[in-house]
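Shipment paperwork, digital attachment
Item: protein structure file
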Amino acid sequence: MPKRKHTTLGKHRIVFRGIIYNISHTTATLPDGRKKTFEYLHRVPTAVVLPFDAKRRLVVTKEYKELAKRKIWHLVVGKVEDGRTPMQAAQKELQEEAGFKAKMLKLFYRSPMHKNWPLYVFIATGLTPSKLPGDPGEDVTAVPMSLEKAERLALTGKIQDPVLAFLVAKAAYTVRTKGWKYLLS
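Attachment content:
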């Protein structure tokens, strides 16, 4: 019998269901025929918003996080749930966390390979005040700042979440290489 070149995965079996994360196991057949169990973490689909005001300032958030026991730099982020589309979830989170409604939401980035964590990132423009109540216990402040300052926060580790830091840096790089018009229109 010839050896296979790749590992073959079996069906995923959910072994833990959480609010945001599920964990599954799958039995894999390795190229040499041995069996091995793999564990996967699955996150609910997530919408991230990079809102820009009329002065081209990025509205970032300063949020109290229980694990950090302090406020940290963050972006508008939320779960895609309750039958909403990613764009509808982005608009809702923008209103809850930053107090704005966007006239235009444009898909800027989508996680390409992470079936276990669908991530939808939107650029929001045409902001008008429109506050919705946030989730119970949330302590979020919206802070407009230049994209350059936000990029420094990302690159110096002050935006601690590596995915959010990457998205800010990607937006800044896009402006440098393609211009504001490309990013905001």
